[in-house]
Each structure stands twice: as C-alpha cells, then as structure tokens.
Amino acid sequence: MKAGRIVLIVIGTLLALGGLLALAGAAMLGWATLAQGRDGYIETPTERYESSGTAIVSEPFTITFDEPLPRFVRERLGDIRITAQAADPGGEVFVGIATQGDVRDYLLGTAHSELREVRFSPFRARYHQVPGTGTAASPTAQDFWEASATGQGPQDVTWEPQPGTWLIVVMNADGTAPVTAEVTAGAHSGLLGPAALITLAAAVILLGVGVPLVVIGARGIDTTPAGPPSPAPGGLEGRGGYVAPATLTGMHYPASLRGELAVPPSSRWLWLVKWLLLIPHYIVLFFLFIAFAVLTIIAGFAILFTARYPRWIFDFNVGVLRWSWRVSFYGYAALGTDRYPPFTLHAVDYPAEFDVEYPERLSRGLVLVKWWLLAIPHYLVLAVLVGGVAIAVSADGRSVLSVSLLGLLVLVAAVSLLFRGTYPQPLFSLIIGINRWVFRVMVYAALMRDEYPPFRLDQGATEVRDSLP
Questions:
Q1: 188, 312, 402, 407: least surrounded by Cβ within 10 Å?
Q2: 240 Cβ contact list (under 8 Å, min separation 6)
C-alpha cells in the first residue's frame, strides 16, 4: 500500500465525510424551511403548563452578536412567537418577554415556577419551585416588557431577538396564583432557505472532490496476493486460500472465512491490552471503511446499469473485509491468536483469512432491495448475536446495560485464558460460527453476491462442506 495512495484515501475520506455531514445538514435545513408552513413558523405542540405560584418563567436564554450583523442577515434573522391561553375559558392570561434582571426584580419575594426541562412525546415539564410570600403586582402595569400580550383567548407575542439574557413569563393578567395555561412556542427565520442552499452547495463540492480522490486512491492500491496464499481446507487452494464453488456442493456459500486457534493457546493476559495495541488498525480501518461505503455505492450504480461489480472495487472491498476479520480475530471478536495482524489488503499467511468469489454477473433488480429489505431478517438475528440487547432498564425507560451473545462468549473465553490458560474448542467453534454469519451478511449487504446468506451457524475453524465431487 503506497503512501501516496493512502494519503489520497485519507484526504478523500475526510472530504467525503464532511460532504455527507453537510448533506445531512442541508436536508435538516431544508426540512426546517418547509416545516415553517403557511404561517412561516416552526412550532412546538400546545401543552399545559402549571404553577402553584404567581408565574411560570422559562429558562434564561442568551443572545450574543459579537459583531454587527450584515444587513442581509439582520433582515432575515427572523423572530419567535409565544402563544398562550388561560386553561379557564373565562380567564385572562398574560405573556411577556423581558430581560432576566427585570423579571427577577419583579418576582422577588413571590412564589413562582422556573421551567427547567421540557420533553414532548410524551409531554413532561420539570420545574424549580421558588418559594415566596409576597404578591406580584399586575404584570400589565409594568413597563419593562420588550413584548407582551394579555386578554382572554389565545394571546400571541412576536419578538425579534436582541442581544441580552431574556426570560419568557406567563401569568394571570391580575398577577394572582395559581397559573395554568396552554402554551406553544414557534420560530421563524428567513435564513433557513439560503443556509440550506449554501450547505447543499458545500456538500456537492466536498463530495465532488472527496469521492474521486477515494476512487483514485483505492484503484491504485495493489490487491493481488503478496505471496503464496494460505492453504484452503482439505488441501484445495484458490485465490487467497478460497475454494472455488465449482469444486464444492451442498452447504457451500461463496464467501470463505477461516480462523485457526493458536496452539499453544493465546497468552493469559495479552487480551487485557489488545484494545491499545489495535489502535493503529482502528484508525486505518476507519478510513478504509468509509472508502468501502463510497465504493459500494459506486458499485451499486455499476451493477444497476451493467450487471457487473467492477473488479477493482470488488478486490478492494474484499481486502477491507479481510483486514477487518484479521483485526477482529486478533481482538475482541474472537481472541483467537496473539500474532499481530498485518497492515495489508492482501491474502497472506495468517491464522485468520477471508475471501469472496468474484461474481461474473449480478441481478440489476436485487441491488435495489437486498441490502436493506431482504437483509432485514438477518439484521434482526445479528442484533441479538452481536448488536447487543438491553437486559435491564431504568425507571424512565433508558437502557442501563447492554450485552451481546458474541461479547459474552468472548468474555468467557478471556476468563478461561486468564485463569486456566486454555481456550475451550467448542466455544471457539461457536464464536467463529457467529463471525462467519456476520461476514456473510456483510458480503450480501455490500452487493458482492446475490446468493442469500443461510440462517445457520457453520461452526469451526474452516467452512462446512457437505461433499466434494
């Protein structure tokens, strides 16, 4: 792997990643532009807010302009709108916006509620209750409000943000307690549309530069074997140790994953620090897998129009999966060896190898559905096997512990190595079987084969074969 090609992949990956983030940002800004609707506001749901005191006060929010805003920005900055209505149909509500200092002075000594947190779906409001014995003067008689409205029925306050620290206050019009009101908040900005277009243009530029750099860098990397490939099971050999499907029948799947358990077993303690030793591999794989994703999208379009997976992309992607499997086998997906994995996409002599037979033709139609729709059953199974399942929840419904079957099995193997110095062979076979399932699904989801992955654990160091001709 030449340094120049790696530099191209790294730079292209960073640019492409920035382009994807910009594209996501443009989509969000575009959605916000459309969500402003006919009246031009993005609004929260109307919910009931309550206080046993004389007022409901929002959290303070600070607006700062370090420099004078350009006229274009200032004219399109927008405004916020607060709509409040007394819960009692005959009651009069007051809603106002003022600086934090003025509101604190006004409510000093009175009992009121400061809003600390609001959640929707389901709605929940958390307050800080400020004690007091005083009585608030009528809010309508105060002259410090920047914007306010009072009366029966829905009352709207529209305010253009200004520098400072501000509070929103909802009260009864006469200042009495308690306060119960239906409130909704909305915001409008004329900058959302232009910001969406600018962000979209930035995304196009970043992707337009980054993706070609990834393609050029990946295409220039030699993925042919660096030396004699590892022997395939049963003495049969193929590209990278892979046994060609023409020689096998029955349970064969055209993606071969091999993992040979170290003899003697791995070190008792090295697994404790492998996470540190593997950091260089994790950094490289981060960039390689982004390149993998970009090239898979390109391959998908190629398949759609030509029914062929570009060979150089195929070889590169197989190399990335091969590299990933070696790192996984050394690390915490198997702990199968203490031999440090090589930095190469090639098929080499290593206790863990992976290969996929190149398909001459692929279905144009399947490329549209197999990576998401058809693979859903496998994703559900793998969510249990390797994705992690919450086994305990806190009172508010948040998961506090998550574990996967593969993680538990590897942990058992690690404990056995630590205390007994042995790796149970049946446990190793099961771990390899789970990893084999994972990589078959990765091959299918990456559009590299049309054969549907089997729902089975082919356990053992080598592939399960029914028969040989």
A1: 402
A2: 225, 229, 230, 318, 322, 346, 347, 353, 354, 355
147-174 pLDDT, tens per residue? Answer: 999 999 999 999 998 889 999 999 999 9
**Which one, of 264, 316, 326, 270, lies nearest residue 293 by Cα?**
316
User: Does the bond joining 359 to the residue before it have cis omega, within 30 degrees of 0?
Assistant: no
* Range 236-256 average pLDDT: 50
CA distance 413 to 428: 8
Q: How far apart are CA 323 and CA 354, in angstroms?
A: 8
Residue with token string 């009692």: 88
CA distances from 13 to 210, 293, 345 (A): 6, 10, 18
Per the CB < 8 A criterion, the answer to whether 317 and 446 are in contact is yes
Q: Which two tokens stand for residue 283?
A: 């950094």
Reading phi first (left if > 0) and then psi (alpha if -120 to 50, else beta), residue 95 is in beta
**Cα torsion 408, 411, 417, 423: sign:** positive
pTM: 0.70
**What tokens were used for 187?**
């915001």
> Which tokens is 112 given?
């009121």
pLDDT score at 235: 37
Going from N- to C-terminal start, the domains of the chain cover: 36-190, 233-445
> Which residues make Cβ contacts (< 8 Å) with residue 328, sequence separation at least 6?
334, 352, 435
Residue 217, helix vs strand vs coil: helix
**Per-residue pLDDT at 10:** 86
What does DSSP say about strands 255-259 and 352-356: parallel, antiparallel, or unpaired? Answer: antiparallel
- Quick one: average pLDDT of 311-322? 94
Q: Minimal CA–CA distance to 116: which of 104, 128, 107?
A: 128
pLDDT tens digit sequence for 410-428 = 999 999 999 999 999 999 9
Cβ count within 10 A of residue 273: 9
Strands 55-57 and 112-119: parallel
Which value, in Å, is the radius of gyration of the alpha carbons in the chain? 31
Q: Are 389 and 464 in contact (CB under 8 A)?
A: no
Q: What is the pLDDT of residues 357-408, one digit of tens each?
A: 999 999 999 999 999 999 999 999 998 898 765 555 544 555 555 678 999 9
